[in-house]
């Protein structure tokens, strides 16, 4: 039985995660910590699932690593510098694992893999990510991760620069550049989490789109990450290995 604590347990994702853990036969929910609650409640847990906010997640991970609790981090805002910090903390705790997951949806993971595979065949590629207006970061962690995978795939394939003759623009009209890939963020009431990757070459367009319509769609990925992190010391980014895709 894996003992699980959820941090940010009263939020939309956190409360859903609590219910998913309680429904799993091989997991036990041992702690529900509010957004700014006392992390000491996690003592005795094997895994902490963090659904808080970018301003809190690094301190939460540091506490967990120092106390021998592995972490599944679903909170946004992870930069390369932040990942490096977590990696250095884990060097002092060789039995602890941290999985940072940009998106827990199995479909989103596949969308990212398909986009990276396709990107080396097309001249142009851009990303549009669409979320609810209460989301704190832009671009989303999923879009950042997708851009990084696409950029790496294009570099490995020796692809040239993406064509763009824009010479006059309103600031931001071409989106943000993430790893050299244009990313456009929409924040609209009624949306949950959606992303399109649009690829093109002469005479052809390929669109890869994923839509999460309910937060319940993230729960199989959350549970897979919880089960994987107790067997995976060190830092892992993404859900691929937990799903057997790595």
Description:
With 246 residues, this protein is of the alpha/beta class. The chain has 2 domains: 2-100 and 215-243, NAD(P)-binding Rossmann-like Domain (Rossmann fold, 3-Layer(aba) Sandwich), CATH 3.40.50.720; 106-212, Dihydrodipicolinate Reductase, domain 2 (2-Layer Sandwich). Helix content is 32%, strand content 26%. It contains 6 helices and 11 strands. The chain has helices at 12-23, 54-66, 80-90, 106-119, 141-157, 219-229, and strands at 2-7, 27-33, 47-50, 70-73, 97-100, 124-131, 176-178, 181-187, 193-201, 204-212, 234-237. The strands form 2 sheets. Strands 2-1-3-4-5-11 form a 6-stranded parallel beta sheet, sandwiched between helices. The chain has a 5-stranded mixed beta sheet with strand order 7-8-6-9-10. Helix 1 (12-23) crosses helix 6, helix 2 runs parallel beside helix 3 (80-90) and helix 4 packs parallel to helix 5 (141-157). It is elongated, with a radius of gyration of 19 Å. The mean pLDDT is 95.
Give me some keywords for this one:
246 residues; alpha/beta; 2 domains; six-stranded parallel β-sheet; Dihydrodipicolinate Reductase, domain 2; Rossmann fold; five-stranded mixed β-sheet; single chain
Summarize the structure.
The protein has 246 residues and is an alpha/beta fold. It has helices spanning 12-23, 54-66, 80-90, 106-119, 141-157, 219-229; strands at residues 2-7, 27-33, 47-50, 70-73, 97-100, 124-131, 176-178, 181-187, 193-201, 204-212, 234-237.
């Amino acid at each position: 039985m894996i003992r699980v604590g959820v941090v940010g347990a009263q939020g939309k994702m956190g409360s859903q995660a609590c219910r998913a853990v309680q429904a799993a036969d091989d997991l036990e929910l041992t702690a529900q910590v509010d957004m700014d609650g006392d992390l000491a409640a996690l003592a005795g847990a094997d895994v902490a699932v963090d659904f808080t906010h970018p301003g809190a997640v690094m301190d939460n991970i540091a506490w967990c690593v120092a106390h021998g609790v592995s972490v599944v981090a679903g909170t946004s805002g992870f930069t390369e510098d932040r990942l490096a910090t977590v990696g250095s903390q884990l060097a002092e705790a060789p039995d602890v694992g941290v999985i940072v997951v940009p998106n827990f949806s199995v479909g989103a993971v596949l969308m990212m893999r398909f986009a990276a595979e396709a990107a080396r065949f097309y001249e142009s590629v851009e990303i549009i990510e669409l979320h609810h207006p209460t989301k704190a970061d832009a671009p989303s962690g999923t879009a950042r991760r997708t851009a990084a995978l696409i950029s790496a795939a294009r570099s490995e394939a020796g692809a040239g620069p993406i064509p763009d003759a824009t010479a006059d623009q309103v600031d931001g009209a071409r989106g943000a550049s993430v790893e050299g890939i244009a990313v456009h963020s929409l924040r609209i009431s009624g949306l949950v989490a959606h992303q399109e990757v649009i690829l093109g070459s002469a005479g052809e367009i390929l669109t890869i789109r994923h839509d999460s319509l309910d937060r319940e769609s993230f729960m199989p990925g959350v549970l897979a990450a919880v089960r994987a992190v107790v067997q995976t010391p060190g830092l892992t980014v993404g859900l691929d290995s937990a799903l057997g895709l790595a």
